[in-house]
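Ticket #4471: structure export looks truncated?
Reporter: QA, pipeline team
Priority: medium

Steps to reproduce: submit the single chain below to the structure queue and open the exported record.
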Amino acid sequence: MRKLTKGITPKFTETDYERLQALAERDGKPLAAWCRDVLLRVASGSQPSPFQFGIMAEITATQAILIDLLCALGRDGKITTQKAQEIVDRAHNAKFKEATQLLQYADARAAKLRLDTADSDEQTRKEDRHE
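Actual output as written to the record:
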């Protein structure tokens, strides 16, 4: 666990603060931790562009549609137009939330890999110094 020793204190309007608080709550994080994560993500350049986010949302929706259609076809042997439309609508309604979750998961995995690599590099340097 890294020791956090430095701080910054930005000021916000009441409206902006409430908006940030809602975003932090949506992600299940305290506001300070959420702000730190967002600032570090922006500083590292790992924030997805609107284009990348849109593509991820469409891929997510397409995958959900395909899986649900195949499951319905396998279960019922046919798919009505109404059932197909329900599947498509459900996927499109969920695509941005699911894309956000996938991007957050990928970012967390990448951060863990970076930390693991940094730890491994540090261990190698320590071993080299002791030889």
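Status: closed, not a bug. The export was complete when the record was re-opened. Leaving a note from the reviewer for reference: The chain has two domains: 13-46, 48-130.
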